[in-house]
Amino acid sequence: MLGGVTSTADAVVVGSGPNGLAAAVTLAQAGLRVTVLEGAPTVGGGTRTAELTLPGLAHDICSAVHPLGVASPFLSRLPLAEHGLEWCFPEVDLAHPLDDGSAGVLLRDLEATCAGLGDDAAAWRGLFGPLLPGLDALLDDVLGPLVHVPRHPLRLARFGLRAGLPASVLVRRLRTPQARALFAGSAAHAYGSLSAPASAAVGVMLTVAGHAYGWPVARGGSASIAAAMVSLLESLGGEVTTDHPVRSAADLPPARLVLLDTGPEAALTLLDGRLPARTERAYRRFRRGPAAFKLDLAVRDGVPWTAPAARRAGTVHVGGTWEEIAAAEAAVVAGRMPERPFVLVAQQSLADPGRARDGVHPVWVYGHVPFGHEGDATDAVLDQVERFAPGFRSRIVASAVRTPADFAAENPNYVGGDIAGGASDLMQLIARPRFGPDPYATGVPGFYLCSSSTPPGAGVHGMCGHRAALSALASLG
Question: What stretches pass through the bilayer (predicted)?
Fold first, then answer.
């Protein structure tokens, strides 16, 4: 029930993002009475949808396309379809246009993708094909703490031989500009230097997930994911209270367990003076990554991409060649605004036609910018899209801008506009948010961190919340 707290809870979850809701569902499935406290007027955190430009045109506020949502070992086991969630798949999962009008194209069908990559067909098949058999079991190992005893060591080793490399090394297996750019865009989802150790990991994971499950959107918008999870939670006896900010422990009702879908910064404030010294030091050292600068656009007749495949793609990565994307990502990590940033575009209405209104399509666009960037990146982002879709600007009939400061003001987890829950370099992947056998435990009895600042990190997969809840349940014996 959305509204006030109506009963004493066994467990309280602070924050109703996908990880908070995943934690709440896990606890409720174990028979606990669960209350979720959300400071905002609406649930969902990064999975929210609103009319940001024109009446009736639904825009996803943060997350938009969900390869790890449909692939998640936890979410995929939940009966979310019974609670209204429907995945919609575009004809083309991902396109990466280049200046000559060609594009790297990712399709769910591995062989069809390889056929479109010409001389790189065998290399692409060799990189990603061996990871597809048994992928469900592999993801159960991968989507968790980096340091752990694997349940499927051989599969994990096969993945690690690719994912542990710098993206700049793995990409040497590819020769054509189209294939190299296609991998670059997926690797850049990590918001980090593509020459760093393990920077290939996100690109490998997203590519394999795309071949196995596709890159779908939620019908009606990402808010449908949160709505289905809330409905499931309520069916299990849990409740959600909105407009209930938690700024200190005094704002919490009594409970045996408290799970925080917050960043380490908020946990420091909430548990002021109670954290063990080692945990407090780790939380204070926690580093944030680059930020997002987002444009929500109402576009008449859609985006006029030069590359035909991009006109049919649910997701389009915009940034040119591998070399250009690597340079842009290195710049934002170093705190410099690139002239040509890496830009992501989602065209949800191609998979979910009901999202368009009278020929006007909601187009979701954001660029990677430095942490806390205070400048106006609107032109830089739009110029990148216009570069590969001449005439694009003239089709925009309404727009809304969300700066890094706007992200941070609207969602306290997005410190400095970092929507990925913290820097994702190798050290912080190992110690996220701190090094230890249980990265979810805060060291304060009964209190656990369950946000994307914990393993496995960003993405609408719910695994941070699910694993944190399992840790909390284990503490009850």
Answer: none
User: Chain centroid to CA 177: how far?
Assistant: 26
Closest CA to 200 of 128, 119, 114: 128
Q: Which residues contact 149 (CB under 8 A, 6 or more apart)?
A: none
**What local confidence, expressed as pLDDT, does residue 430 receive?**
86
Enumerate domains of the chain plus CATH numbers.
11-86+218-287+419-475 (3.50.50.60)
What CA–CA distance (Å, rounded) separates 319 from 381? 10
Q: Which residues contact 373 (CB under 8 A, 6 or more apart)?
A: 291, 293, 337, 403, 404, 417
Q: pTM for the full model?
A: 0.95
What is the C-alpha to C-alpha distance for residues 260 and 185, in angstroms, rounded to an integer? 32
The confidence score (pLDDT) of residue 3 equals 44
Q: Token digits for 58?
A: 């639904």
Q: What is the DSSP letter of 16?
A: -
Q: Which of 329, 328, 288 is nearest to 419 (CA)?
A: 288
Positive or negative, the CA dihedral 15, 21, 26, 30 is positive
Distance CA 20, CA 61 (A): 18
Return the structure tokens found at 441. Answer: 């435990």
Q: For the CA atoms of 20, 21, 22, 26, what is the dihedral angle to 10 degrees?
A: 110
φ and ψ at residue 360, rounded to 5 degrees = -105, 130
216-229 residue pLDDT tens: 999 999 999 999 99
- Those residues whose C-beta lies under 8 Å from the C-beta of residue 358, and which sit 6 or more positions away, are none
DSSP string, 200-269: THHHHHHHHHHHHH---EETT-THHHHHHHHHHHHHTT-EEE-S----SGGGSPP-SEEEE-S-HHHHHH
pLDDT of 151 reads 76
Using CB atoms within 10 Å of the CB of residue 245, give its burial: 0 to 12 exposed, 13 to 18 middle, 19+ buried.
Answer: exposed
Residues of the chain with pLDDT under 70: 1-7, 146-150, 152
Rounded to whole angstroms, how far apart are CA atoms 371 and 245? Answer: 25
Packing angle of the helix pair 135-142, 153-163 (nearest 10 deg): 70
Q: Where does 49-132 have alpha helices with state H? A: 67-71, 110-115, 121-128
